[in-house]
Amino acid sequence: MKFLSYEFFVTFRYLNSKRREKFVPFITMCSLLGIAISVMTLIVVISVMSGFERDLKTKMISMNSHITVESTTGRGISQYHGLMDTLNKMDHVIGAAPFIAGEALLRTSSGAKGIILKGIDYALEDKVSSLESFVKKGSYQLSAKGVLVGNEMARYFGLRVGDIVVINIPMKSATSFGMMPRELKCTVDGIFSSGLYDFDMNCVYMGIETYQKFMGTDKISGINVQLDDFDKAFAVKKKIVQKLGFPYYARTWIERNKNLFRAIQTEKVVMFIILVVAIVIAAFNISSTLVMTVMEKTKDIGILKSLGATPGSIMKIFLFQGVIVGVLGTFLGVSAGYFIVVKIDQIADLVSRLFGFEVFPKDIYLFDSIPAYISASDTVIIAVSAVLISTAAAVYPAWKASILRPVEALRYE
What we know:
Elements: H1 2-16, H2 23-63, E1 67-71, H3 81-88, E2 93-108, E3 111-120, H4 122-125, H5 131-134, E4 135-138, E5 146-150, H6 151-157, E6 164-175, E7 178-192, H7 197-202, E8 203-207, H8 208-215, E9 222-227, H9 233-244, E10 248-252, H10 253-256, H11 258-296, H12 298-306, H13 311-342, H14 344-355, H15 362-365, H16 376-402, H17 406-410
Parallel strand pairs: 3-8, 5-7
Antiparallel strand pairs: 1-9, 1-10, 2-3, 2-6, 2-9, 4-7, 5-8, 6-7
């Protein structure tokens, strides 16, 4: 303990001393700031990507079921009530609801837009999705010709509850003017907000019976299945396929979005590697600082050794300098990173106002705000990695100081 106190004392004296060579303290500060900035950047990037992945999973699951059952024929499913009864009786299944979906054109007095039109049974839909909880204005229960539109679409067209919209589908009907696309005048019964820009801008919901009459069919596109645990989706999917057999197949929520989640995971790993390299580069400044310190303190090292200091003690003195710089830089980086993550939306708005461009375009990133999730495990990994890299950078200069011979160190003094 006595030697430990002595070594720490000398280390802090070297860090706080007013050296003749003013360039060394400047490099030390650059090293500390380099570590801090790299750690801060890594925490912000990983937090945003973790938040993006987490919120995307949550919102996609809330807007879609855990499993979707469809037909391999591509012509829809008829006589589906028996299938739903079979699915509802299976283990871990807590709900099943039919749906019909297709592309359509929505026309308003303000313009027109291509949409995804979905027909749902609102009495069963709340068992497989959170659509009802997302309705912010109007009613979730649809009238005979009522529709639900997203808040982004409502804002884009200036729609309100009670407004009339016209929906066209790519199927022709015979009229006195010849073959014309089918159209249906609908009333906006409700406006929903899921927090996912893509859904809120492009999806329109109507009653499944209304959609079937509109299409002139009694078939559905598929059946949404909800489980008591979404992690069991693959296991239940296998049982569904075995139970129903041909021509039915099932897809899990992961399979429907596998390319997206795989891309997010790959980007997260790549960004982690790139930013760790930035920490390594910053750590090289620690090595250069300690090398210059050793050169400047050659006389001091000789005096300490002549007074009985061991090579291990000399090595600890300089190693502690690298560790202290790494720990302080990491602490500052973690603190700054947490602050930025907490205030990230306000910072993004400020940057947008100052430079005149949108930092986080909603139509590209799907969210209405920047998602950020601070993971304790990610923070620990980043902090420990930064300290270990800083310590490793200090090993060689500390070792070189420890092997200096007192006679050579004092020869020209």
